[in-house]
């Protein structure tokens, strides 16, 4: 019964956090980050909770088909390890995809800003030329350094 409650609460928390994330469109980045991390961690633990529920229900329940093979612990350990591996690979791919999206958009913005500043520098007269023209108009002669 505790395992069933754990799965039900995890599903309820996932739904609650998804709704909360939609509502936090104008909230601070700290709140958005906190809710997204909470949602990710709950989503990662849910498959293991379901496997735990099924495995121990079979082992300690009175299932006629499973009476001959009552020890589910080795299967539980192997399946949980495989699930953890799949979760880790999926999270790594998701992080890499998010970082590539951030880096490509930020590098494009940085490049655009760089070329705009170069254009502005080339289109305006340099400070040395402005000073030389001012000195010529005032009749001063300044020797180069």
Automatic annotation (TrEMBL):
The keyword Endoplasmic reticulum does not apply. GO terms for molecular function: olfactory receptor activity. PANTHER family: SERPENTINE RECEPTOR CLASS ALPHA-1-RELATED (PTHR31357:SF5), SERPENTINE RECEPTOR CLASS ALPHA-10 (PTHR31357). It holds the Pfam family 7TM_GPCR_Srab. Residues 125-145 are annotated as: Disordered. It is a multi-pass membrane protein. This is G protein-coupled receptor. Belongs to the nematode receptor-like protein sra family.
């Amino acid at each position: 019964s505790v395992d069933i409650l754990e799965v039900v609460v995890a599903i309820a928390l996932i739904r609650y956090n998804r709704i909360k994330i939609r509502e936090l469109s104008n909230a601070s980045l700290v709140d958005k980050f906190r809710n997204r991390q909470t949602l990710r961690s709950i989503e990662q633990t849910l498959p293991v909770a379901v496997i735990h529920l099924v495995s121990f229900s079979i082992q300690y329940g009175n299932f006629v088909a499973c009476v001959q093979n009552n020890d589910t612990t080795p299967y539980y350990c192997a399946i949980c390890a495989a699930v953890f591996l799949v979760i880790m690979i999926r999270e790594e791919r998701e992080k890499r995809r998010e970082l590539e999206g951030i880096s490509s958009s930020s590098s494009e913005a940085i490049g655009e800003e760089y070329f705009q500043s170069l254009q502005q520098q080339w289109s305006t007269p340099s400070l040395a030329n402005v000073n030389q023209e001012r000195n010529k108009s005032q009749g001063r002669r300044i020797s180069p350094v």
